[in-house]
Amino acid sequence: TLLGVLTTDALVEPDVWRKIVQIAVDRSFNQITVDGDTSTNDTVIALASGLSGSTRISSLDRHEAKQLQACVDAVLQGLAKSIAWDGEGATCLVEVTVTGTNSEEAAAKIARSVASSSLSKAAVYGRDPNWGRIACSVGYAGVPFIPNELRISLGGILLMDGGQPLPFDRTAASAYLKHAGETHGTVEICISVGSGPGKGQAWGCDLSYDYVKINAEYTT
Amino acid sequence: VCASSEAASNYIPKAPILLPEGPWEQVLGGVTAPKGFRAAGMYGGLRAKGEKPDLALVTCDVDAVAAGSFTTNIVAAAPVLYCRHILDNFSAARAVLINAGQANAATGDAGYQDVIECAAALAKLLQIQPEAILVESTGVIGQRIKKEALLKSLPKLTSLLSSTIEGADSAAVAITTTDLVSKSVAVETEIAGARIKVGGMAKGSGMIHPNMA
């Protein structure tokens, strides 16, 4: 279950605040996954005291609203990433960045599809630079794209470009994954599916034996 | 019962917070960093095992503009139904009460009544309207809140409320379940010449695939 409480002393109108919070939730908590199970209890409550003495923010179109939006996005993304980092049994955080779609939503959808893939997650735990599983989870995300424009890199190592698998240093790519696992660091997967302006991110973690152990012992 | 908020905040380590870069700076304090907020966390005897803090409270000294985002799981827990109802009808809130140990999900009408009773008891202690209180629960699904333990703990919990970093940290620990680390962060920035802060805390480790609206 994900629970969150957000506070601010910015002065903001209720309808604007509710929109800012939902947009930020969509860009953060709704973009993480550990095990694919949506809880009965996921809740984020956000309170704005208005005590900072700032100008009242009464429209989403105002520059001040965009500034507040960016701050709320940052705080929730920071927290969201720490949840994925702390996923049950996880040895590393997996950050998936997708570019080249026609919209932010489409990119976010692909990114989450990759972060959610049990096979990709297991491959990361196995320190296997398995571009095939990543490509597969891009393909079933539900966002149309031209396969020949697919590009995949892992920690800066290009694995696929123009829809074609590339020769790459498998030992180095595996070492990258191993190092991330040993240091509880971050594995970065970058994907491009075209030349559109859309960009989105999602965060997950690897899938280890411990995940099963923890949840086999945690009874309902 | 933890003797102090400092003891509660040290129960588990803090998570590394991977904050994106931008025109803000990270500051200490979590949910208590912005002006007007206090927080506390304590062990209230709700957890099945161990004595890690399991009750948290965040309050605002004034009516705060309130927003919420909730699971879209149709089998939503009682506190989710309660909060959605409150936020459908009111735009301000003063407190968020959170328990770990029991999710109070799939508990039917009795579970919903538990939420109402907990909110009413806290409202009386804080001398505010029950509608100004929002509730979050996490833990084992299918179990109602250990209500007697919770109600008995409320006077102590309210007495621990603090605007300090320790207050925020203890609350961040008290909301955790299988989490190995607590998650708390705050940033400060300037908007139209005024310094504003945004703080937050979260918990989550398993059953994580949010789809909130």
Describe this structure in words.
Chain A has 220 residues and is an alpha/beta fold. Helix content of chain A is 40%, strand content 22%. Chain A has helices spanning 14-27, 63-85, 104-116, 118-125, 131-139, 170-182, 209-216, and strands at 3-8, 43-48, 93-100, 151-154, 157-161, 164-165, 186-192, 196-205. In chain A, helix 1 (14-27) runs parallel beside helix 2 and helix 3 crosses helix 5 (131-139). Chain A is globular and about 55 Å long. The mean pLDDT of chain A is 97. With 213 residues, chain B is α+β, with helices and mostly antiparallel strands. Helices cover 28% and strands 30% of the residues of chain B. Chain B has five helices and seven strands, in the order αβββαβαβααββ. Chain B has a four-stranded mixed beta sheet. A three-stranded antiparallel beta sheet of chain B has the order 1-6-7, covered by helices on one side. At the A-B interface, strand 1, helix 1, strand 2, helix 2 and helix 7 of A face strand 3, helix 2, strand 4, strand 5 and strand 6 of B.
